[in-house]
Design a protein that fits this description.
Low-confidence stretches: 144-150
Strand content: 15-25%
Number of helices: 4
Order of helices and strands: HHHHEEEEEEE
Shape: rod-shaped
Strand order of the largest sheet: 3-2-1-6-7
Helix content: 25-40%
Distance between the termini: 104 Å
């Protein structure tokens, strides 16, 4: 039954297949596109906000300290890059001897030794340090808000 249908209808089937292939080739050559144009209008806008209080001036310094809290050596390198003002606003850096910012807290610098260019370890001279704009240590410059040694 199926073979009889094919033997009788093969010229029509072949003609339809050739027409489809010819049309597809012609459309490709002419660049005819049957895909409807997509409307690129914004349907919905979503704003994602952090939970940090940007009105709190300490929020950025707290984020800085939290980011490096588990890596003291990395925190020390990041503190070294801070200015005196920025160093004194963080809770994890101290301004050491009026010269540089290092990792530390109200009890002093985190690292009490440092490596020299020749890879030898030397003690850090801690004459005084500033933590959040308060001076600690025996050689603090004379100021009103000096709380003295911890």
């Amino acid at each position: 039954m199926f073979t009889e249908f094919l033997t009788e209808q093969w010229p029509i089937i072949l003609t339809v297949v050739i027409i489809f292939i010819t049309l597809l080739t012609l459309f490709a050559i002419l660049g005819i596109n049957f895909n409807p144009p997509q409307n690129k209008i914004i349907q919905k806008e979503v704003v994602v906000e952090s939970f940090n209080d940007n009105n709190n001036k300490n929020s950025l310094s707290d984020d800085f300290c939290t980011q490096f809290s588990s890596q003291s050596d990395v925190l020390n390198k990041q503190c070294n890059k801070l200015t005196e003002h920025n160093c004194n606003t963080t809770g994890c850096c101290v301004w050491l001897n009026g010269k540089q910012c290092v990792a530390g807290n109200e009890r002093g610098p985190t690292f009490l030794t440092t490596k020299t260019d020749k890879n030898t370890t030397v003690d850090v001279d801690v004459a005084y340090y500033y933590y959040k704009d308060k001076c600690f240590g025996k050689d603090c410059p004379k100021v009103k808000d000096n709380p003295g040694p911890p």
